[in-house]
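Work Package 3 (structural annotation) set out to generate three-dimensional models for the target panel prioritized at the project kickoff. During this period the team completed the workflow that converts sequence records into discrete structure tokens, so that structures can be stored uniformly alongside our sequence database. As a representative example, we reproduce one entry of 443 residues exactly as it appears in the project archive.
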Amino acid sequence: MEIIQFDDRNLAHYSYALISNGKMALIDPSRNPQPYYSLAEEKNAQIIAVVETHPHADFISSHKEIAETTGATIYVSKLLGADYKHQSFDDDDEIKIGEATLKSMNTPGHSPDSISILGINEEGKEEVLFSGDTLFIGDCGRPDLRESAGAITAERQALAKNMYHSLRSKLMNLPDDVIVYPAHGAGSLCGKGLSAKNASTIGVEKASNWCLQNLSEQEFLAEILSNQPFVPKYFVHSVELNKRGAGAYREGIEKVEISEGITKDLKDYVIIDTRDEAEFKKGHLNNSINLMNDTKFETWLGSIVSPGESFYLIADSYDKLEVLITRVAKIGYENQIEKAIVVKEITGNKSDVFDLNEFKLSPDNFTIVDIRNSNEVKNKSVFSNAVEIPLPELRERVGEIPTRKPIVVHCAGGYRSAAGASIIKNYLNSSLPVLDLSYAIKE
């Protein structure tokens, strides 16, 4: 039995292929199916099964497309209520993959329909656990994402209780040497304290993971329900799309119209300008949000732009634009791109010039907007008098910002403040200076 792990670092997502005797099963595949097809060809293996541990919130899966292309069977919990052709895969159900076996365990907690999958090797030994979003390395799945999405919804309190018992009655009873392969690692918003390690064992997790310690149910609930990360706008959309099954990946991205240069016929949509912050500040279009081509582009795009909202996508080269379109597709937003535009330089609006010395001398002469997440502000308050509006909420709450003084935008590292300053300037509809503190310090 051979296991191959795929790592999408932008979304901190792990997917897997299990191969035995020329047969292959895929677990929680990413949106682009080509790497799995290439692996099957390389290994001379036939993809016969695709297993979804639950309908994912943070990325779009290619399970439906892979099944339609290869003839593989999709296996999911019957509780998922999948709209595509599938086989139910619940407690004690088994799939033969060559000479190996996959065995399902219902492990509700992150979602009501979550399953974990035990991999049993050719000798009958319980060898690996594909734990989905139930058990992570150093953490477990958050229980607050299914209150308004999916075939079954559940309050976070109920799911947190489910998680407590799933971990203890199912996963902790496995042999200590079973290898744990989770669906996510550090940087994922599906938990709050994930390790950067990409695998562990049940024994190591029992010794070190807070979720598996000797806690009462109430102690566990108090911890798991506190200080969870923010929920991007696209999460509910992703659950529903994964429940239906997304359309063909390549077909979707090839439908995006790409042009060169700015034309005058742009409709009144938001513009996602991915150029470097310095270039954006030299000149940009109305309605532009400076969301740079960074490692977390997908997450912030899906946090700022709502599902179904059309937008233009700008980059300074064809190569960058083509890559960005594939990244947009990972969260199922490719159909929302009205047009993708290559442009190196824009003569238009210029960003306000920040006099950092003036701010340091007289900070009370400015309105400071802290766009970090609530947990970040709670853990480390930087400005006691700041207006606190997390970036994902900024477009909707920009009217709460006082307009009596110049506005200074603050975040932790500069990426969010670039986006935040551009949002405030666009939506405030005022000549009031909007200044990017992080950028000024970086310069």
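The first strand starts at residue 2 and ends at 8.
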